[in-house]
Amino acid sequence: MASLLVNRRLKSTTDRLRDARRELDVVGEQLLYIEDSAHEQAMQQHRAHLIAEIAKLEAKIDRLLDGRPR
């Protein structure tokens, strides 16, 4: 039962990580074409938030994998 729960959490976290990485790619592309400094600043903040979120998700995946039965 615990293994099933860990696998579910791992799948969910992996999906969220994939989505965050895709969004980071889109934000990176958008930053190439932004001309308004206020909009660029907002996108830079969003990019920083995504980078932090990706780091948290990667750490969570590591913890889940460390606790998984072999």
Give an overview of the whole structure.
The protein has one domain. 89% of the residues lie in helices and 0% in strands. Helix 1 packs antiparallel against helix 2. The longest helix is centred in the N-terminal third of the chain and has 32 residues, at 2-33. The model has no long low-confidence stretch (mean pLDDT 94). The protein is built from two helices and no strands. With 70 residues, it is an all-alpha fold.
Shape, please? Answer: elongated
Helix percent band:
over 70%
Radius of gyration: 16 Å
- Given the structure, what is the number of helices? 2
Number of domains: 1
Mean pLDDT: 94
| CA(first)-CA(last) distance | 15 Å
The low-pLDDT segments are none
Largest beta-sheet characterization: none
- Structural category: mainly alpha
Q: In sequence order, what are the helices and strands, one letter per element?
A: HH
**Amount of beta strand:** under 5%
List the defining traits of the structure above.
mainly alpha; 70 residues; single chain
A few lines on this structure:
The protein is an all-alpha fold. Helices cover 89% and strands 0% of the residues. It has one domain (2-66).
Q: What is the strand and helix layout of this fold?
A:
Elements (H helix, E strand, L loop, with lengths): L1 H32 L3 H30 L4
